[in-house]
Amino acid sequence: MTEITRPTLIIDKEVCLQNIERMVKKAENYNLRLRPHFKTHQAAKVGEWFKRFGISQITVSSVLMAEYFASNGWNDITLAFPLNILEMSRINRLADSIKLNVLLENREAAEVLAGKASNKIGVYLKIDTGYNRTGIPAGRTGRIDSILDILRKNSKLTFKGFLTHTGHTYTALSTNEIFSSHFDALLKLKKLKNRYHKEYPGMELSMGDTPSASICGNFDGIDELRPGNFVFYDLMQHNLGVCEISDIAVKMVCPVVAKHVSRNEIVIYGGAVHFSKDTLQNTDGKQLYGRVIISQDDEKILLDTKNYLSRLSQEHGVIKVTPTHFKQINVGDLVEIIPVHSCLTANMMGHMITTEGEFIEMMPKY
């Protein structure tokens, strides 16, 4: 890695492929369609790795992302973000060339979609199963009925079913809490399916968070999984007990620019504009922005949590280290940092390099 001179996101392609294959096999074992979320990697080249395992349907989080992947050969895409009615013209253009699914959670967006959709579009109703971010509360069947009535006004719209993101699993305090949140979401979706399946016999249920997709074993009644983070994983997932350190495919490689012996601190070129501001609580109760890997005698060593990325400003990162490791790290060295949240770190960087030296450009931000 001597050619690296600034903060660089490195991904291990083989680990990514192993993660993809594991999730594909799990979906097959539970008779689920895997529609992976591509917001984690946002790269056409990484998307090609999924095709090796037979993936042909994907999830994205913006119209821009849908356009990018459609231009790279993906023709069955779910836009898993509440419909932005200001982008209807672009949505119609997309739906003219690919199979497109969108999300609704309110009457206002449903009315605009029914009035302006000029091409066939699949529609999922977003259900809030406890995350409390977006979606229709599972018990609000009156609102669901009113939206379905609106959709009937336009024959080009097809109600596909109910979709949820059990995002509160990311803040779980134990794997048992992940199991509990997942099962609760499962019951809520199945109750809705029981209510509506006679009128809509082809309707489906779609779930999509990496923690439950990775470790849960009950998907009774579910048709589709949409996890995304699993391709890279990160410290957040490891902290949840969802993956092993060896499953994490991403590292930020950063130059050491200064040392402060009085504080046992190492300063790296790598700050909030590279990592984002996501944190975990370290064993000492303080914020942790990443864990540290150093090279010693051509061997990679993961330092314990007494050595961690403790502070970020715009371009600076400050690593707290023990006196022993302080002596082992020198100005001009490169250190590897396992990020807390790989999705945001990748998004901040905009490009990646594989451990084999292959440059991977991510989608443009405009």
Automatic annotation (TrEMBL):
GO terms for biological process: D-serine catabolic process. It holds the Pfam family Ala_racemase_N. Residues 249-356 form the D-serine dehydratase-like domain. GO terms for molecular function: D-serine ammonia-lyase activity. InterPro entries: Ala_racemase_N (IPR001608), D-amino_acid_metab_enzyme (IPR051466), D-ser_dehydrat-like_dom (IPR026956), D-ser_dehydrat-like_sf (IPR042208), PLP-binding_barrel (IPR029066). It comes from the Bacteria. The keyword Lyase applies. The keyword Nucleus does not apply. Keywords: Lyase. SMART domains: D-ser_dehydrat. Belongs to the DSD1 family. This is D-serine dehydratase-like domain-containing protein. It comes from Draconibacterium sediminis.
